[in-house]
Design goal:
With 731 residues, the chain is α+β, with helices and mostly antiparallel strands. The chain folds into five domains: 144 residues, Rossmann fold (3-Layer(aba) Sandwich); 164 residues, Topoisomerase I, domain 2, CATH 1.10.460.10; 128 residues, Distorted Sandwich (Topoisomerase I, domain 3); 123 residues, Orthogonal Bundle (Topoisomerase I, domain 4); 88 residues, no CATH class. 37% of the residues lie in helices and 20% in strands. The chain is built from 23 helices and 25 strands. The strands form five sheets. Strands 2-3-4-1-7-8-9 form a seven-stranded mixed sheet. Strands 15-12-13-14-11-10-16 form a seven-stranded antiparallel sheet, with helices on one face. The chain has a seven-stranded antiparallel sheet with strand order 19-20-21-22-23-24-25. Its cofactor is Mg(2+). It is an enzyme of class 5 (isomerase). Keywords: DNA-binding, Isomerase, Magnesium, Metal-binding, Topoisomerase. This is DNA topoisomerase 3.
């Protein structure tokens, strides 16, 4: 009897599929049962070949060899993954395997992972596709009962291949051109450059911003405060003379209540989470980076199976999921969620358009809990935090709206209008899910609310004081990781574009994809184009200079948005992939010519007096995400060493985080607090720490940290990232 070979994307997913499919016999890199054999990739096993594979002249980075445009791009096995590729290849080519099931991640890049492996293994067997959004036993069994012919996903594969080839042709050519031209480690790419340009432009806006003084005028009555408003309901006044006139006209005068209006207001729960919204909230509430949130989500999806597929750009579920809602509610009916979940289950679930909409679901629905009850005690605090956000959002969309009565008192004080607002909660509705208001962004109506006395039209108000308050207009805020994700998702709000371009950006979901945005931000940090000041993201001198050097079109979010729009058309069979790759080749040539003809200069303004121990060139001091390091200015050398890094160790005197400075035996801990003078040799500090009666199993902590570090560094569906890492660890 012939067997079915199932190809998963990662070992953890492969093992889960094997368990459900009863493949208990363990092989080298695969698991086998009576009907199925399950094997797995390690993310990408196959990628596009390096330039030197096509011609020896590309071994050296020289401007005269550009542009590099091989007639047909070749596939190669990734060196570090060669052993697993050979295992997968031997299983695919087994005589007793009659059919293949692609079970990689259900998305564009997941499709590419599998198709490239199958192509490189030279296999031609009937192939089907498993397409699921959660890793529960039920979802896997249902998925295998409803396998689709892989031909249904051919266009998705073509779009993925076009993206990878275009990134190779454009990214490698512009990166080599910039590096050769300026003799510095410079990289560029359609998403990376557009993102960096937004950060640099925002910094420029802040630098050029000139604050203006403005005033607000408040009148105090008995027990409440009213604020001055003009005819257009604005409260800000920019002319000091006008302020003084209003103050002199109203001081010592009584108020006359012109109107008291009461209006019932309803506020519905925010939509379910997609990955970007979840990353934003996790950054705002817990300070997690985008990459960190994705890594945590991946564990909750793959390892614990309590949440659905993370890399989704939809905030809705499709109607076929509605029947599963009771089971999902039962699965989360524990602890603090029990009361709300039980309340929803007792009534009839209202599957309204606020969270059920087929037209707003593409490959995957919003992130929601699965039907599997997890053991919450086994989750780390970070995992629990992310799980908590998703469950609360899931519960809130099925609960009634938050309702309140808004009272507005409008008073006249000697011809000037003053207004006070107050809210009375009628029904907490979905807000009862949230015990901490920090988990919600409060709206303006609530922010201005105060407790108001009972007054009616025509009443006189005794005004005890009328005072002005001088304020200053604020510069635009610097990006943090949360707001940067918003800008990547909706760049039309952050850059000046015409209406047609704004519409294009809106249709394509911005720049990058939900799967790649976290990686792009990490790359900008790793290349020292940006650095952090607290939570704020600031461009470095290198980042600013790079944006001056990069050709104009590559910096525009519109170019990458148009690119994504065309890839979407290819995935739907509405555009010829060959036409797209030809356009990209032509574009790459234009970019190279642009750089060749440029008269711009790049200057290292962070040179140290220390020479590289490998090549003797002066090193550069750079500020990374976790501290300061020296890196060799020569791209080919690549030597780097830590100068100082932030640790989780705490100062014994002021409890602030400690910095670890220096190398080897000379390492010292220094308090990051400039007002604290604590310094101690690392060897002494560690000895003192080790001697304490610490009950924590240090080996276990070390293993957990290693695991988290490994997961954080895993390439996520990014063949171009893999390829570029061989050059300079960036796209």
């Amino acid at each position: 009897m012939s067997k079915i070979l199932v190809l998963a994307e990662k070992p953890s997913v492969g093992r889960e599929l094997a368990r459900v499919l009863r493949c208990n016999k363990k092989g080298n890199g695969y698991l086998e049962g009576d009907k199925y054999i399950v094997t797995w990739a390690l993310g990408h096993l196959v990628t596009l070949a390096d330039p030197e594979v096509y011609d020896d002249k590309y071994k050296q980075w020289k401007m005269e060899t550009l542009p590099m445009l091989p007639k047909r791009l070749k596939l190669v096995v990734i060196k570090q993954s060669g052993k697993q590729f050979n295992i997968v290849k031997s299983q695919l080519n087994r005589q007793d395997v009659g059919e293949i099931v692609i079970a990689t991640d259900a998305g564009r890049e997941g499709e590419l992972v599998a198709r490239w492996i199958i192509e490189k293994a030279h296999v031609n067997k009937p192939t089907k596709r498993l397409w699921i959004s959660s890793q529960t036993d039920k979802a896997i069994m249902d998925g295998f009962r409803n396998l689709k012919p892989s031909s249904q996903y051919d266009n998705l594969y073509k779009a993925a291949e076009c993206r990878a080839e275009a990134d190779w042709v454009v990214g490698l050519n512009i990166t080599r051109a910039l590096t050769c031209k300026h003799n510095a480690q410079l990289t560029a790419g359609r998403v990376q450059s557009a993102t960096l340009a937004m950060i640099v432009n925002r910094e420029e806006e802040i630098r050029n911003f000139k604050p203006k003084d403005y005033y607000v005028i408040n009148a105090k009555a008995k027990g409440f405060t009213l604020q001055w408003r003009d005819k257009n309901n604005n409260s800000n006044i920019f002319e000091e003379d006008r302020v003084n006139k209003i103050l002199s006209d109203t001081k010592g005068k009584e108020g006359n209540v012109v109107s008291v209006t009461e209006s019932s207001k309803k506020q519905f729960a925010p939509a379910l989470y997609d990955l970007t919204e979840l990353q934003r909230d996790a950054n705002r509430i817990f300070g997690y980076s985008a990459k960190q949130t994705l890594s945590i989500m991946q564990r909750l999806y793959e390892n614990y199976k309590v949440l659905t597929y993370p890399r989704t750009d939809s905030r809705y579920i499709s109607s076929d999921i509605v029947a599963t809602l009771p089971d999902r509610l039962k699965a989360i009916s524990v602890g603090s969620y029990r009361n709300c979940a039980t309340e929803i289950l007792k009534g009839k679930i209202n599957a309204h358009k606020g969270f059920v909409d087929n037209s707003k679901v593409s490959d995957h629905h919003a992130i929601i809990p699965t039907e599997e009850r997890g053991n919450l005690a086994s989750l780390s605090s970070e995992e629990r935090n992310i799980y908590d956000l998703v469950v609360k959002r899931f519960l809130s969309v099925m609960l009634p709206p938050y309702e309140y009565l808004q009272t507005t008192i409008t008073a006249d004080i000697n011809g000037e209008t003053f207004v006070a607002k107050g809210n009375v909660v009628k029904s907490k509705g979905w807000k009862k899910v949230y015990d901490k208001l920090g988990d919600l962004t409060e709206d303006e109506d609530e922010k201005d609310s105060q407790e108001l006395p009972i007054v009616k039209k025509g009443d006189k108000l005794k005004i005890t004081s009328v005072e002005s308050k001088k304020l200053k207009t604020k510069a635009p805020a610097r990006f943090n990781e949360g707001t940067l994700l918003s800008a990547m998702e909706k760049p039309q709000k952050y850059v000046s574009v015409d209406k047609v371009s704004a519409k294009t950006l809106g249709e394509t979901g911005g720049i990058g994809t939900v799967a790649t945005r976290a990686d792009i931000i990490e790359k900008l940090f790793n290349m020292f184009y940006i650095e952090k000041n607290g939570k704020e993201i600031i461009p470095t001198s290198k980042g600013k200079q790079l944006i001056d050097l990069v050709p104009e079109e590559l910096k525009s979010p519109l170019m990458t948005a148009k690119w994504e729009l065309e890839l979407e058309l290819i995935s739907k069979g509405k555009k010829d992939p060959r036409a797209f790759t030809e356009e990209m080749r032509k574009y790459a040539s234009e970019l190279v010519e642009d750089v060749k003809g440029s008269t711009d200069k790049f200057k290292h303004d962070n040179l140290t007096g220390k020479k590289c121990p490998n090549c003797g060139k002066y090193m550069l001091e750079v500020k990374g995400k976790h501290g300061v390091m020296n890196v060799c200015q020569d791209r080919a050398c690549g030597h780097r060493e830590n100068v100082s890094k932030f640790t989780n160790a705490r100062c014994p005197e002021c409890k602030k985080r400690l910095e670890l400075r220096g190398q080897g035996e000379g390492q010292i801990y220094v308090c990051a607090n400039t007002n604290c003078n604590f310094r101690e040799k690392a060897s002494m500090f560690n000895k003192r720490f080790d001697s304490k009666n610490d009950k924590v199993n240090k080996r276990e902590v070390s293993n957990i940290m290693k695991k988290m570090k490994k997961e954080a560094n895993e390439p996520i569906n990014n063949p171009f990232g893999d390829l570029m890492s061989m050059f300079n660890k960036d796209k």
